[in-house]
Write a structure and sequence with these properties.
three-stranded antiparallel β-sheet; 10 strands; single chain; four-stranded antiparallel β-sheet; alpha+beta
Length: 184
């Protein structure tokens, strides 16, 4: 099996069957940011070097037109085994969660808190290592923020379980964040 055929199968799995495993957030029509899919695929060493041009090549060489790429967003045309919009159930989070981010975003986070940006939710990690890996996608020396999730939850912030290592929130105010064990 060739490289692009294997990548096509991985993309199908991510977009049609297990978007949560890749931290993908689909809109009601099944679209996700191509960058979000690429970030999700980068978690496997095998796909570390792929970029948007590889997604375009998968679409170009495929006999069956399985994907559509438009305006920086991608979707699978058919065969979904999950609903397009995954409804999350609110859950009590662990006492502490983590968020890895690029250093260039720290000042904005201090002012505005953690915002979902292009996503439906803010993504938080259950362990420091995962947060660091996520942060390194955007900065070789990322900042690891510690979230007082227990206090935030007690004060009304809604948290949702994404998977065994990822928690989601609508928004996290900066008053719940610590950096280098100091209040923001």
């Amino acid at each position: 099996m060739g490289f692009y055929e294997e990548l096509s199968k991985e993309m199908s799995y991510a977009l049609r069957h297990a978007p949560w495993e890749y931290e993908l957030e689909m809109d009601e029509e099944g679209w996700v940011s191509a960058g979000q899919l690429i970030d999700g695929l980068h978690r496997e060493a095998k796909w570390q070097q792929i970029g948007e041009q590889d997604l375009q090549e998968v679409i170009r060489v495929s006999e069956k037109k399985r994907f559509e790429l438009k305006d920086g967003r991608i979707r699978a045309f058919y065969g979904h085994s999950v609903p397009m919009r995954i409804v999350r159930e609110e859950k009590r989070p662990p006492d502490i969660l983590y968020h890895g981010t690029a250093r260039r975003f720290v000042e904005s986070i201090k002012s505005n808190g953690l915002l979902p940006q292009e996503r439906q939710y803010v993504h938080l990690s259950q362990d420091r290592e995962t947060a660091e890996r996520v942060g390194k996608r955007h900065d070789g020396k990322p900042c690891i923020l510690v979230i007082d999730a227990k206090k935030a939850w007690q004060e009304g912030v809604k948290f949702y379980l994404g998977n065994e290592k990822v928690w989601l929130a609508d928004y996290v105010d900066s008053r719940y964040l610590l950096y280098d064990n100091r209040k923001f």
